[in-house]
Design a protein that fits this description.
The complex is a heterodimer of chains A (119) and B (107). Chain A has 119 residues and is mainly beta. Chain A has no helices and 11 strands. In chain A, strands 2, 4, 5, 6, 9, 10 and 11 form a 7-stranded mixed β-sheet that branches. A 4-stranded antiparallel β-sheet of chain A has the order 1-3-8-7, with no helix packed on it. With 107 residues, chain B is mostly beta strands. Classes of the chains: A mainly beta (119), B mainly beta (107).
């Protein structure tokens, strides 16, 4: 149990377009999802925390109007990169926090990640 | 502020033992994780420490000293497939990841 999927796994887009990344919890309900960004050879940086039924919480320095996060249901969170530019090219990963009662009760459950390349 | 430090890169030989250190300064502490991450993939869970001491799991062990703000991951009997990045992460009210250590295992 505790599988998180992401779609798409990779995407290439033109500068100025918007890209939506979906993150789904497949066999459990997630009221919260974390969204991370990872540049090459760097660690994961938390961008925001999405919450089902309320507004996302953004980390300092992350533009909420550029990175739109919506937690539409208990199994789906989306990140939309609006007006993407080459500097937004990165690896975006979502994760669900620990779920009481599931195996690995203290660990996050990561999605496989989405590689975004903006030309 | 929040700060988690790890060595940037390490190199070791197949069959050897390597220790990856992590020091942290965070405003809260609910546990420390170690993750392995291969290039282009999501992190995979290795270990979790919340109390001081050593946790052993097969070839991997993790140690924590809360008073010193220090942890290490010990990898024994290194294999080529252990070449990856190793991330230390501390949980307080959120997860904070360290800079990551790229380990290269040589034949």
């Amino acid at each position: 149990g505790a599988v998180v999927s992401q779609h798409p796994s990779w995407v290439i887009c033109k500068s100025g377009t918007s890209v939506k990344i979906e993150c789904r919890s497949l066999d459990f309900q997630a009221t919260t999802m974390f969204w991370y960004r990872q540049f090459p050879k760097q660690s994961l940086m938390l961008m925001a925390t999405s919450n089902e039924g309320s507004k996302a919480t953004y980390e300092q320095g992350v533009e909420k109007d550029k990175f739109l996060i919506n937690h539409a249901s208990l199994t789906l969170s989306t990140l939309t990169v609006t007006s993407a530019h080459p500097e937004d090219s990165s690896f975006y990963i979502c994760s669900a926090p620990p779920v009481p009662g599931l195996a690995g009760a203290n660990e996050q459950f990561f999605g496989p990640g989405t590689r975004l390349t903006v030309l | 502020g929040q700060n988690i430090d790890q060595p940037t890169e390490m190199t070791a030989t197949e069959g050897a033992i390597v220790q990856i250190n992590c020091t942290y300064q965070t405003s809260g502490f609910n546990g420390l994780f170690w993750y392995q991450q291969h290039a282009g993939e999501a992190p995979t869970f290795l270990s979790y420490n919340v109390l001081d001491g050593l946790e052993e799991k097969g070839r991997f062990s993790s140690f924590l000293s809360r008073s010193k703000g220090y942890s290490y991951l010990l990898l024994k009997e290194l294999q080529m497939k252990d070449s990856a990045s190793y991330l230390c992460a501390v949980t307080s009210y959120k997860y904070i990841f360290g800079t990551g250590t790229r380990l290269k295992v040589l034949a």
